[in-house]
Amino acid sequence: MFTRMLLATVVGLSTFPVLAQSPKPAQEPSRLPPGFGPQIFPHTLHNTPRTGVQAPALGINERKTAELKADIKLPQKEQLVRVDGTALIARRQNENWQIWAGTTLLHEFGKHQSEAEEMVRQMRELRPTEWACIGAGRPVVEYGLTKGEAFVPRYEPKHSARLDLKTLRAENVRGAWVLRDDQSIALNFGVNREDAEQAAAVAQRYGFNRLGWVGETAPVMTYFFAMLGSPQSTGGLGAAIKSIQEDNLTRTGIDLGGTGFIGERIVIDAKKCEVRKEKGEYQVVHGTDVIAKFGASEWSARDALRVVQDIRATEFCRFNADITFFLVNGLPPAKVPFSVQSTRFDPEGLKVRSASGGQFALYDGGNRQVFGPFATQVEAEQLAKLMKHYKFDQTCQMGLSSKGGLKFLAKQGR
């Protein structure tokens, strides 16, 4: 009850829908409380009316609030793609909505037509000549440059949050690398520290003091941009909201009973998982996260989707690229689906031993290699600890390919 009152007090939220009102003069949006970045509670973020002119379309050299810092070195080379900002278009291809700039594909939107069309409008405001994406394996944040600089749009977009460039940084929170300032967490990069550090450096270098996104119930695409104005403090409530925000991170490490975080844990809604075809390959996805790939076999992908939905998974976890599992409210599913192929093992009997080539692996009591090899002994020991923590006793697989399909750990009964 206290948490609900606190959120209502700080954010000014209401449980009733907001009725249409007469347009008011445009104002600078107020600073959002920490903890409500677009990967957490996007529906609570500031929704700026698009009436009036909030800022002139100035080049970065003409403004003082978001200064270009070309001397800031980026941890990674920028993956810039030259684009014609006047040729941006949203179109449907292979059952998915996409944004194209001429012959260049910039972003996949799945079935989200309205979000793709809205993003085209936002991108046209930014007048990009170059476009870049940050995120290994999945796009976390994107940005446009106009002849190597940020361009200030005329209007604040529909959904946006402020970034305090003075305190913006990459930080590890509960096993996940996030982009944050002193007042809020803006983006969650999961296990990818390098991407979080790249995002912080890019924002500092080009003066990106805003984070925008499209999507009403969940962000479909997130991007940096720059506007006039500076962040405002949330006062003494900052620490309380920070705690709430961290508790609601949807991408963290896997917590092994307080002994530390390993791998990656992603909160999912099984009902929102779907089969998507991208570049001729069928995939089971949840938003931008790919759970499994099935090549040209659509029926294998749909069988796997039914399994995920039948067990009502609430979390998808990756120990590494090859070892994954599902949880239901923090616990292994109650039963193993009959439709999967499974191999049993005794979790209590797993031992870490040396393998060929100076590597390590997990062996059962019969000296059978069950998992591995791993590059380090520490990695093998972490997996053994995970097996005992959740009492997994079998590996399951769906799909005909040894390299593709859905592979996950499971437990027979509670």
Distance between the termini: 33 Å
* Shape descriptor: globular
How large, in whole angstroms, is the Cα Rg?
A: 23 Å
Indicate the percent of residues in helices.
Answer: 10-25%
What is the overall number of helices?
6
Assembly category: single chain
> Which stretches are poorly predicted, pLDDT < 50 over at least 5 residues?
1-66
Strand order in space, largest sheet: 13-14-18-19
Strand proportion, as a percent range, falls in 25-35%
Number of strands: 25
Biggest sheet layout: 4 strands, antiparallel
Number of domains: 2
State the secondary-structure class: alpha+beta
Mean pLDDT over the full residue set = 79
What can you see in these coordinates?
The chain is α+β, with helices and mostly antiparallel strands. Helices cover 18% and strands 29% of the residues. It folds into 2 domains: 2-14 and 27-247, no CATH class; 261-345 and 393-410, no CATH class. The protein has 6 helices and 25 strands. It has a 4-stranded antiparallel beta sheet with strand order 13-14-18-19, with no helix packed on it. Strands 1-5-6 form a 3-stranded antiparallel beta sheet, covered by helices on one side. A 3-stranded antiparallel beta sheet has the order 2-3-4.
Provide a quick synopsis of the model.
The protein is built from six helices and 25 strands. The protein is of the alpha+beta class and 414 residues long.
